[in-house]
């Protein structure tokens, strides 16, 4: 491990931590079984398994570990070493690629005993990873915080001390895990939500996460200003780089007291609003045109139905008239034929007489 903070930070910044959804589900299940009904400050601890190639740390599996600590005295805690070793050997038999790469706890923040617990895990891996998984997140965003322990060199020349450095972490799933996660989210996802609403929701969550980070930066700078935390030039340098990327708002004015930046923003905003207005107007005209077309089609269909009904009634009337005429004709012909037959019958009798 590097002995200076600068070298260590350069190595930590290059690393990326990827956490599988299976690990999150396992930690939540561990918390619900062990600490959900206990005190609010009680946390659960477990071991992380995966692969570490130096640049990307892939956390693919985990298992729970018996852990107890005194809530009043953080220095008093117990961790079962034998259980860790036996479970690690069992997982090696199942998947030899998964190695012990670190540990986790349910946080939600770092605690005083975390450095000592991290030193204990150095028995199994040279640079253990600590992932704090918030099982009850109150803010939108990634519920994981990844840390590596580094040596902090102080400016006054005193003995170096250990501290945790945060590194970027993401939630990444394999294809089989993605199918399972989609199946679990099917019941809670709003199917009626369209693409636009989904994009707006994602942007809102991103802005909320950014706002939370800015609040953390503000709290940190306030503590440094009050003397509660030592000055860290690396962090201040990174903050200065962030401030240098911000746009320069103190640009010269361009008529009516507006600066060039605000004028450009107003022009761009007006163009966007004009595009939105035109699209809404076109949509309204299209909907109105469709409404008129629907009314015309409905009227034509109704007229066709009425014409067909009237034609059917006329055909029925013509059929009834024809039937009545045939009956009358048949009746007249019957009487005539009967009289003729009687005359024919009488004639031979007369002849015999």
The third-level CATH topology of one domain is Cytidine Deaminase, domain 2
Oligomer: single chain
Question: How large is the count of helical segments?
Answer: 8
In order across it, which strands form the biggest sheet?
Answer: 9-8-7-6-2-3-1-10
Average predicted confidence as pLDDT: 81
Folded structure, characterized:
This protein is an alpha/beta fold. It has a domain at 5-190: Cytidine Deaminase, domain 2 (3-Layer(aba) Sandwich), CATH 3.40.140.10. The protein has 8 helices and 10 strands. It has helices spanning 5-14, 21-34, 81-94, 114-121, 175-185, 195-226, 233-245, 260-352; strands at 16-19, 45-52, 56-65, 67-69, 77-79, 99-105, 129-133, 144-152, 161-167, 169-171. It has an 8-stranded mixed beta sheet with strand order 9-8-7-6-2-3-1-10. A two-stranded antiparallel ribbon has the order 4-5. It is elongated and about 130 Å long.
